[in-house]
Amino acid sequence: MSLADIPVIQGVASSLTGNAPILLREIAEHLRRLLDCGETAAIDLQALPLTPADRAWLRERLGNGEIRVALEAEGQSTLEETGCQGVWWVTHHNEKGAVVSEFIETAFVPELVKAHPDDVQSGLEHLELLISDLC
Amino acid sequence: MQGPLIDTLARYGVSRRSFLKYCATLASMMALPPSAGRAMAEAMAAAPAAAKRPSVIWLPFQECTGCTESITRSHSPSIEGMIFDMVSLDYQETLMAAAGHQAEEALHNAMKENEGKYLLIVDGSVPLGLDGAYSCIAGKSNLEALKEVAKGAAAIVAMGSCAAYGGIPKANPNPTGAVSVSDVIKDKPIINIPGCPPIPVVMTGVLAHFLTFGSLPEMDKLGRPKAFYGETIHDRCYRRPFYDQGKFAKTFDDEGARKGWCLFELGCKGPVTYNACATVKWNGGTSWPVESGHGCLGCSEPDFWDGGGFYKALSMPADPLKVVAGAVAVGAAAGVAVSFANRAKKSGAKGGHETTTLADLEK
Amino acid sequence: MSATLEKGVRVLKEVIDAPIASYFNSCVHCGLCAEACLFYTETGDPKYTPIHKLEPLRRVYEQEYTLLGRLKKLAGLSKPVTDAELGEWQELVYNSCTLCGRCSVVCPVGNDIVYMVRKLREGMSASGNAPDGIKGAVNRTVTIGSPMGVKLPAVKAQMKHVEEDYGIPIPLDAEGAEYMVMLSSMEIINFPEYLGAIAKIMQQAGKTWTLCSTAFEATNAGMQIGNSDLARVIVSRIVDGAEKLKVKTVISPECGHAYTALRWEGANLIGRPFTFQVKHIIEVLGEFQEQGLLKTEGFETDKLTFHDPCQLARRGGVIQPQRNLMKMVAKNFVEMPDPGFINWCCGGGGGASAIEEGEELRIEAFKKKKSQLDAVKPDRLVTACANCRIVLEEGLEHYQMDIPVVGLTEMIAEHIPEKGA
Amino acid sequence: MNEMQFLTWVRGTGLNIAVGIFLLGVIWRLIEIYSLGRKKDLSAPRNVPGASGWHTVFRRSMPPKDMGMVKKSPVSYIGGYVFHIGLAVVVFLFAPHIKFIESVVGLSWPGLPSQFVDLVAVITIAAMVVVLADRINKPVKRYLSTFEDWFTWTVTFLPVLTGWMAVQHLLLPYTTMLALHILSVEILLVVLPFTKLFHAFTVWGSRYYNGAVNGHKGVAV
Description:
Chain A has helices spanning 20-37, 52-62, 117-134, and strands at 41-44, 64-72, 76-82, 87-93, 99-106. By secondary structure, chain A is an alpha+beta fold. Chain B has a 5-stranded parallel sheet with strand order 2-1-3-7-9. A two-stranded antiparallel sheet of chain B has the order 4-8. At the C-D interface, α2, α3, α8 and α16 of C face α2, α8 and α11 of D.
């Protein structure tokens, strides 16, 4: 018997549980708070009992927005705006490409995207160095 | 968020965003709310960089080196590595270049130089049988070695189920008289990181905590860090919805198994096992036992080896019911004996019957 | 003068059987039987809860027939049944129980409570703890021949009266007759119309029948007191008479307990099946009606209702015939609340009416009947048991209710056309 | 003894002891009770359809017809039904219980979703509290009650409560609560044959006898 004879059905190991639709309400609540008092929030998807099918359902419902940020830092991270503006789908991968954590963030811009003043300072210093080199 | 750690990391070429990402992931792994990731990043970044790296002594007793394997596999050249690089591993038989007298010397130097400050990591159980003769290093029994090294330690980490509870060496009938570290040492803070093997990130998490705050993290009553052992596998399992719906795999190759249904009936010990496998996963987040189709063995719980069988559902008897035939026989014998006595009594009462006459109605 | 506690307990040991053991083990103390017992519902006193009335029997069972009970008894951990206790229980086992059997119908675990009360009475009587009133009735039945002390000459006198009034001969000791008719002494003394009614009915039906000089009294106080030995003495007279006269059927009169004693207990008392059939007069009338042997004319027009004697209906299985007969002669027949199988007792069955000191309780319990009658407001009350009739009349009088009580058989007979008319 | 050892003990040795005493007790008590026998009824039977022991075994599961008993004692009936049916659902239709039964006797059947069983457990607990309150309040029930009544209520209540609390993760860690749950069931098994709880077995015999005795007279009780 070869390996191929073992009847493993890929992807079937996940059917809808009904937990995803509930999340939509929670996201809506977070968005309301973002509008009312600017409070950002994040939902840790790995902390919830969701099957891959649930996640796919959620991803599909939320849809795709206009912005897709790719972050290269100890493996790739993607921060994708969903069809609902203000709702971001954040996926962190490790160097091997495996997903290490996954969040849904509600923010005007995710914190991670913004540059820290110290880093901007470093950037400025670097730029000034470049300029001084021109002279 | 700024501080010495960020600068250190920057020197190693690790960006601020990488560190934030790492902390967010660590928080997720530790089953903390997403906001805690940021808080942890702030705290760790602000922690003063140690002038001298804290010393760590690692003692192996009755063990299989699985725990060491597990930890070393977490060493991708990354932030975790950075955290490990922040300690000085002064004695670790498997990893150290030194051997023989040199190794012993390194151990004694480390103990002397860092007295009262070093962190002792132990993997493996301590045999008490035959005065500890079952396991000796450099002519010293594990018991002696543990007592000696523990004396000057700031804290002890019992790494793996053997060190934490006695583990497989202690399994029935426990031929070597194996005990856990906490059975021997009573006067030092001890943290247990059970598992067979334990999850690497738990070790880095505890180290990070020790480095950041100089103390051990909050523990449950089995001495385990609550962040990782606060909830059961079952409660965090992605197959939990199937349990709730009553959908169970009955064999390892049936329809239910292929559809990824709950493995409770195949003996999964998830409901009584406190560990983070379901969220942290193994091998760089690749998978974990339940995801690969096998029930949890409960390896992070005491005496998991004697828990009544890995493939028996938790609600099933741990031992086979041997008493049935005997009990039925004894019950039947008792019943028949009573019934004979009853019949004798009843026929006695009948035999003693005096026909009532009118006079017999009066007292 | 020889009744002792030991005798009582010995008799209880003799009568305890698997059903009783099963019943006591099944009781969960839910107390539903209380709701079915008119002595509880009318007084609200929990001591009248039927299952509680069996406490001495339960303890004897537990102490004698269960291993744990035996061990507890050996260790001195169980409370033995005492004579004083049985004395105290007299009120519960006799005065406040008419053996109506309603409790046995409601028990959710299926306990036949009245079955057990009947058995407990065996021990009560053998230990000398039966009420004096019933003892007197038993005494008169065994020595004189009837609980009210009626002797054969009184019956003969009655026969003569009836023969004169109706012009129908009353056969006595006629061998080979189809039916042997039994009487209750109440009918001989209080309701002589009964005998005349039987004569008219038998004549119309063209059936042969007879009275028996050695067995005219049907009631069995021995069964009411709960003593099988004495009940056997009484029932044997009837069996002997019926077998001597070679009758096919013995007709139990309008008396509930007489029917139970003869129809259901008789064969068991004498230890062999009867060679004849036993029927209640209502059953016989019902059969005649079905066979077209009973023809009536005219109707009662006032409002009538029917009181089901417990031993006839719930305890005897005769429920429909009396209704068919009522409808045959009554235009305005109205059922009481809780009729037939679930009727409420008059309060004086099972020997209770013979207990003088139980009268106050009986009157209290009669409130149940009163409320049923208040709901219907009948002009007259019909029944088919002479004992019920007496108790009903007493109760109605006490509560100053002007409702005459009549026997069904007599009422039917009144509607039988005069021969040749 | 740590909690895992406790759990393993109740699943192993403890269960063996409890099941042993239970089986021994049931067999012994059944023989003790039914071997007393009864006399044959010599009177001529009146045969009426529906009047027999077997009919009564089933018929008695419903309140008697037209007697208004449910109105007179609603708590006994409604509370009684709810808690008996609730117990049956929780005991026999909860998947882990089915697995236990299967492992012991080899029979298995489909279970119900755990959320539903959970709801039933809550209702059962409520019903049992209500029947207890009724036992305390109703003069007749209070009058009849002995230590055994309070004791058997407790040993019946504890398995439901601990089982539900284990599933809900209340008060104690799941492992400990599960062990306590199994222990409480074992106590129930041990005392069942020797208390009024034995009605679970004798109720059928009692109904049969009552039905047979009265059915002989043509009365369908």
